[in-house]
Amino acid sequence: MAEAHLLISEEEFTCSVCLDTLTDPVSTPCGHSFCLKCLKGFWDHSQVCICPQCRRTYVPRLELQRNTLLNEVIKKLKKNSLDSPPLSQNYVRPGDIQCDACTERKFRAVKSCLTCMASFCQVHLQPHYEGDAWKDHKLTDPSGNLKDKLCAKHQKGLEVFCQTNNLCICMICVATEHRGHHIVELKTAREEKQNELGRTLSEIQSRIGVREKKVEETRKVVEQIKVSTIKKTF
């Protein structure tokens, strides 16, 4: 049987003391989890043993035991996410697009959906890959202004490029005012533009090289004239 994806917040695996992924996790009776080292250190420096998160008091001091189940879950998630950035790096930072579905601490969006008109982190994006209701949604790179990726006339995703009019259009445009025009995929249009820019850059660099060569030749001629003039003078 295929493993079910854990659609839970990554924040549940973060220690609220060190703000990093739980290591040797221990859980208190109030239901909060911390790194064994973090909670032990927190209590060692406190006169009363309290939960760092909800402030519940424990007298006498609890004997901390590793939460083996939670530890195995974290190990499994780490193993399945070796190619992904650390959890702490998934929090939204200046310049990032934030997930619209996160209700507490915001995570960095990895995709934007032009159908939902929202951006999602890796966890909240998962239904788009697994559910039939979302399989036809149009996903794109994270964008802070999704309206720029929609057709201004039909409010549909810009999916193709009209080479006749030199602009991105939606599929309704293809069937209406752009019928009979030369239409290509956005990827094809982007590659053609990149190749065109590459050729233009090569031509500019070639012209610069020719100019530099002429300047160097002129400089040598000037130097020769100077040397010749000095010799004639003496």
Automatic annotation (TrEMBL):
The answer on whether this UniProt entry bears the keyword Zinc-finger reads: yes
- InterPro entries per the UniProt record, alphabetical: E3_ubiq-ligase_TRIM/RNF (IPR051051), Znf_B-box (IPR000315), Znf_RING (IPR001841), Znf_RING/FYVE/PHD (IPR013083), Znf_RING_CS (IPR017907)
Query: A Pfam family for this UniProt protein?
Result: zf-B_box
Q: Does the keyword Amino-acid biosynthesis apply?
A: no
Question: Could you tell me the keywords of this UniProt record?
Answer: Metal-binding, Zinc, Zinc-finger
Ranges where the B box-type domain occurs: 146-186
Q: Which residues form the RING-type domain?
A: 15-55
Which superkingdom? Eukaryota
Q: What is the protein name for this chain?
A: E3 ubiquitin/ISG15 ligase TRIM25-like
Species assigned in the record:
Erpetoichthys calabaricus
